[in-house]
Design a protein that fits this description.
Helix 3 packs antiparallel against helix 4. The chain has one domain: 3-Layer(aba) Sandwich (Aminopeptidase). Helix content is 35%, strand content 26%. Strand 5 and strand 6 form a beta hairpin. The radius of gyration is 16 Å and the shape is globular. By secondary structure, the protein is of the alpha+beta class.
Length: 202
């Protein structure tokens, strides 16, 4: 759709149906509903030895929702244009409405890794993550999953399976499994999964 026409009302409605937005090669944002879905069930992940060692070592600080726009901006990739300025704008509006969230990892006061996504009930749809220091993106995912478990979330939706998420413990749901778990998840009440303000988009 042309710039300026995407609203948080449209985004909220899509996520409630299990769909997610991506820009096509021409830059137009479309909504997609895959037959199956890649998820981290129980909001847990596989932690290998090197990552576990880094977590024990520490040397980083974790925050939530303190630098949402910075995290989104850091996820822009020149060779992968699914995340457009238009989509980033609406994600920012969703964040201000209380249902788009970010996890930030800081090293020496600098943003070293992060992840962001949208929450509907007990379902969290992770859109993108980035890393500027070794393992800091994975640590952002680890900390986000821990936060989601504490808040009562059922699943983290990774949308499309890839080799990276598979190594971290992501599993592929069939279409039937996805619809069952998704329906159960969005019915769960969570602090992050509520829309707290009306859309100001036009």
């Amino acid at each position: 759709m042309p710039d300026g026409q995407l609203t948080t009302d449209m985004l909220w409605a899509a996520y409630q149906e299990g769909a997610f937005p991506m820009a096509d090669d021409s830059g137009d944002v479309q909504f997609y509903l895959t037959r199956g879905r890649a998820v981290f069930p129980g909001c847990s992940m596989r932690v290998n030895r090197s990552l576990a060692k880094q977590i024990r070592k520490g040397g980083y600080q974790v925050t939530f929702d303190t630098a949402f726009d910075e995290v989104v901006a850091a996820c822009f990739r020149p060779r992968d244009n699914w995340l457009t300025p238009e989509l980033a704008r609406v994600y920012g509006e969703a964040h201000r409405e209380g249902w788009a969230h970010s996890c930030e990892v800081w090293v020496g006061g600098e943003l070293a890794g992060g992840i962001f996504g949208e929450a509907v009930g007990g379902w969290f749809s992770a859109d993108s993550m980035f890393t500027r220091h070794t393992d800091m993106g994975k640590i952002a995912l680890f900390e986000l999953l821990k936060k989601l478990r504490d808040l009562g979330f059922v699943c983290l939706d990774s949308q499309i399976m890839n080799s990276h998420t598979a190594r971290l413990g992501c599993v592929q749901l069939t279409e039937q499994e996805f619809h069952q778990i998704f329906t159960e998840s969005i019915a769960v009440e969570t602090a992050w999964g509520r829309r707290q303000a009306a859309s100001s988009s036009t």
